[in-house]
Amino acid sequence: MRRISAALLAVLIAVLPIHPAAAVRRAGHPVLAYYYIWYTEASWDRAKTDRPNLGRYSSDDPDVMRRHIQAAKSAGITGFIVSWKSTSVLDRRLAMLADVARQESFTLSIIYQALDFHRNPLPVDRVAADLVWFEDRYAADPVFAVYGKPLVIWSGTWKFSLEGITRATEPVRDRLLVLGSEKSAAGYERVASAVDGDAYYWSSVDHYRDSGAAAKLAAMGAAVHRHNGLWIAPFAPGFDARHIGGSRVVGRSDGETLRRQYAAAIASSPDALGLISWNEFSENSHIEPSVRYGDRYLTVLRDITGAPVPSLGPLAEDSSGAGDPGGFPAGPAVAGGAVLLLVILLVLMIRRRSRMVASGTMSRPRS
Q1: Residue 179: what are its φ and ψ, rounded to 5°?
Q2: Transmembrane stretches, by residue range (predicted)?
Q3: Digits of tens for pLDDT over the chain (367 positions)?
Q4: E-assigned strands of the chain?
Q5: Which domains does the chain have, with CATH numbers?
Q6: Partners of 199 in the beta sheet?
Q7: Cα separation, 23 vs 12, whole angstroms
Q8: Dihedral angle at the C-alpha atoms of 126, 131, 135, 136, nearest 10 degrees?
Q9: Measured distance CA(71)–CA(80) in Å, rounded
Q10: Interatomic CA distance for residues 106 and 98, integer angstroms
Q11: For residues 196 and 240, is the Cβ–Cβ distance under 8 A?
Q12: b or e along 181-212 (b: 16 or more beta carbons within 10 Å of the residue's beta carbon)?
């Protein structure tokens, strides 16, 4: 019975992504998009197969930041999770982004980049000092108060010892929420005592091929909640990092990938959704309007979140390559019929089990 019920859940996840707007309106989960402030005009010459509609921008441009925030809000995004560690350039850009976000009534969180360019862990003392630096400057700033106090995701916790994580987080946990970035339920159990939850950055998952992906997310959500932590579940429109050494490609399927990943994330009982990403162009997980895709993925996200269609999108100057907003691969009637059939099957199974219990052919569970 349990195996059959699990199979039905898996089928529901495959069916429900078609038009999930009503579900997210009921749930009201915050949608937080990962946002990168590392760009210079020269960045667009390296490892890019697409470019933004706004052109070869620099992350030092407050007008670009403002237009990003306005476009994100129009698609139902609640806030940005900003990639940061303390350097003179990133500190300046973070302060600039915070100023713009305050003016636009938009929230910010942090993903702290605790691994270097070669994916090696930074010294724990450096991480601890950066967390204190951030706490001193932003702990009382309402723009970061997503859950009453600033939220910081520690990227790369799996590369650090529990002792090191505890040493860095303990001094700041009264004023900051510090989340891990573990990749499994077992990984989270290892660090649970030192963090306030987990945000899994799973940009390369493929729900067409990775049959256990939804169950993995559900197990991670359950593990985090057993420790009363916050669970930020990932979803992405696609992935292709071949230009920076990767090999896996997750096709976008004109928005269906985003819908399926959203449905699996919702099924894991998240406290918030982590959208990967606003502008990670090297891994091609971006939803920022671009030369290749136009504003197609803002349209898809707007449909998912149920956000109202704006009269004029802030990044609508060049939407070449955008798909038709209509014509999704399957309609609500198909999804509704499939769900109805599954519900009928489940009811019949429950009735059959009840008759077996009543007739004595199945023993009742012990109290």
Answers
A1: -105, 150
A2: 330-350
A3: 444 444 444 444 444 443 333 333 334 799 999 999 999 999 999 999 999 999 999 999 999 999 999 999 999 999 999 999 999 999 999 999 999 999 999 999 999 999 999 999 999 999 999 999 999 999 999 999 999 999 999 999 999 999 999 999 999 999 999 999 999 999 999 999 999 999 999 999 999 999 999 999 999 999 999 999 999 999 999 999 999 999 999 999 999 999 999 999 999 999 999 999 999 999 999 999 999 999 999 999 999 988 776 654 444 443 333 333 333 233 333 344 444 444 444 444 444 444 443 444 333 333 3
A4: 31-35, 79-84, 107-113, 151-155, 177-179, 197-199, 230-235, 239-240, 249-250, 272-275
A5: 22-330 (3.20.20.80)
A6: 232
A7: 13
A8: 0
A9: 12
A10: 9
A11: no
A12: bbbebebbebbbebbbbbbbbbbbbbbeeeee
How many angstroms from the chain centroid is the CA of residue 15?
21
| Residues in a beta bridge with 346 | none
User: What does the alpha-carbon distance between residue 30 and residue 270 come to, in Å, rounded to a whole number?
Assistant: 9
**Separation between Cα atoms, residue 34 and residue 327, nearest integer Å:** 28
Two structure tokens written together for 188: 């989270």
Distance CA 196, CA 177 (A): 6
- Reported as type and span, the H/E element at residue 280 is none
* 308: exposed, middle or buried (Cβ count in 10 Å: 0-12, 13-18, 19+): exposed
